[in-house]
Amino acid sequence: MSVQRQLEQAERLCQQRSVRFTPTRRHVFTLLAEHKGAVSAYELLDRLKLLEPNAKPPTVYRALDFLLSQGFVHKVESLNAFLFCDHFAQQHPMQLLICDSCDLVIELHDEAINQAFNQQAEQHGFTITNQTIEAHGHCERCRKR
User: Fold this and answer.
1) InterPro entries of this UniProt entry (predicted)?
2) What pTM did the predictor assign?
């Protein structure tokens, strides 16, 4: 799906949810959608300054908090980076494979992994409020080098 169509879909969802999709939030959304892979907040800030010269770190972090809350992006905790979610229109399980050589991040949506993880949590009397499953290793391209 094109970035423009993703932006239109996000705008519709924001209208349905009665949340404001401000110009800055749109800019950060678009920058993430155009970027392939995970990107740090400061890399986003550098790009955002081309569109909004007065942008500061809090500007980006507020926009990222909003995009995270709406499910438009995922935080890659171990890289302290953000990844655009192509499947933001619906709730979905999410697991990340992260290459330690090239920083490639692959988003998985395996319901079986999600269910097994939740079952284990329940068996231990644990209630999950926020879940990020990340696995580090080496992608096929880097293993062949």
Assistant:
1) FUR, Fur_C, WH-like_DNA-bd_sf, WH_DNA-bd_sf
2) 0.86
